[in-house]
Amino acid sequence: MLCAAVLLITPWIGSTPVTWRNVVAGVSPDREIFLIARLPRILFGAIAGGALAVAGVLFQAILRNSLATPFTLGVSTGSSFGAVVAIWLGFGTVVLGIPFVSLAAFVGAFLTILLVFFIARTGKALPTFTLLLAGVTLNFVFGALIMFIHFAANFTQGYMMTRWTMGSVDTADMNAVMRTAPFVIACLIALIWISPQLNPLAGGEEWATSRGVNVGRLKKSSYFIGSILTGAITAFTGPIGFVDLIVPHAIRLAAGPDHRILIPASFFLGSAFLVLCDTAARTIFAPTEIPVGVITALIGGPFFIVLLRRKRSELW
After folding, report:
1. Would you call 125 helix, strand, or coil by DSSP?
2. Which residue intervals of 128-242 are DSSP H helices?
3. Does the domain at residues 33-167+174-314 carry the CATH identifier 1.10.1660.10?
């Protein structure tokens, strides 16, 4: 209900007022502002926020670590590295309607997924501790490479890199929505289907195995689904932090740790949260816009601290 209310209200909020009557009647510029500038951006923000929140749930579940996020395993940093390399080399072309920078970002994320997986894999097992260490290590490596490219780039390239790594949904259009929505919805349905198996995993791998869960297959499928979800979204938005951390915890504090509820509820709350943050980003200092990644950190950080102070013993 919150997500639906946010999606219905936020398209009418902005620096330029629009009216329902003018939009329905096709009066310019209200119709163009609503259908071209605001609606695609809000829809894509909803998809991105929901996908990032669900990815956070998955990584926290398979790693059994309350601070695990796509940033922890290096997926977001690998995506940023791919985009920064594309900007540095001057690849500003469009391939099949998709900016080359976005393609490079997705390739960077996908290669990071594979690299972390093959480093961490031991035989047929995927040890949680090794997976976490491999992700954190690659996170630092890619971070250092990004800083080196920043140092080697010229002023214009450096500005573009910095702007991209702040995270934003301001370039979204209906093509981006149509490309990502079916993929994200399909992943969400698959995760809801396997969500009952994630509950025994919270008690440990041995406990889950004794309850009939194929832990190896569950961890691998969850890892790849969460990583590819993150890579597909980050390729268009850049790294947007805190959504994948605070939204799952907020749901846990409100409704408990049952993944059958946690996954769909995190999707809808993540959608509403990112859309509200993006609305604030484009209206607070209008007509100047703030990168939404800045807003998510400024709002999400204090909110998360308040949740921890009030319900510290109920987090898990």
Report:
1. strand
2. 128-152, 155-166, 174-201, 205-210, 215-237
3. no
In whole angstroms, what is the distance from residue 120 CA to residue 159 CA? 35
Q: How far is CA 216 from CA 113, 127, 201, 221, 222, in A?
A: 17, 9, 11, 9, 10
- Cα 262 to Cα 54: distance, rounded to the nearest angstrom: 9
Sequence-distant (6+) residues with CB within 8 A of 142 are 74, 77, 78, 80, 81, 112
In contact, 198 and 209? CB cutoff 8 Å: no
pLDDT at 262 exceeding the cut of 90? yes
How far apart are alpha carbons 129 and 142 in whole angstroms?
A: 20
Q: Is the pLDDT of residue 298 over 90?
A: no
Instruction: Determine the pLDDT at residue 288.
Output: 80
Written as six digits, the tokens of 39 are: 């609606």
Phi, psi (degrees; rounded to nearest 5) at 234: -65, -30
Average pLDDT of the chain is 85
Mean pLDDT throughout 87-115? 82
| Side-chain half-sphere CA neighbours of 139 within 13 A | 16
Token pair 């007509």 in the structure block, residue = 287
In what helix (H) or strand (E) does residue 98 lie, and over which residues does it extend?
strand 98-99
3-class secondary structure, 204: coil
Using omega within 30 degrees of 0 as the cis cutoff, is the peptide bond preceding 29 cis?
yes
Distances (CA, A) of 117 to 85, 133, 204, 223, 226: 23, 11, 20, 9, 13
3-state SS class at 177: helix
**Domain locations along the chain:** 33-167+174-314
Max mean pLDDT among 22-36, 57-71, 241-255, 265-279 falls in 265-279
Global pTM reads 0.88
